[in-house]
Amino acid sequence: MSHLLHEWHDRVSVITLNRVEKYNAFDDTLLHDLQKTLDEAIANPDVRAIILKANGKHFSAGADAHWMQKMAHYTEEENVKDALVLARVMNTLYTSSKPTIAMVQGSAFGGGAGLVAACDIAIAAQSARFCFSEVKLGLIPAVISPYVVNAVGARVAKWLFMSAEMIDAERAKQLNLVHHCINEDQLWDYTLTYAQKMTTLAPQAVSECKTLIDCVDGKPIDEALIEKTAAIIAKKRVSAEGQRGLHAFLNKETPNWN
Question: Which CATH number is 4-198 given?
Answer without folding.
Answer: 3.90.226.10
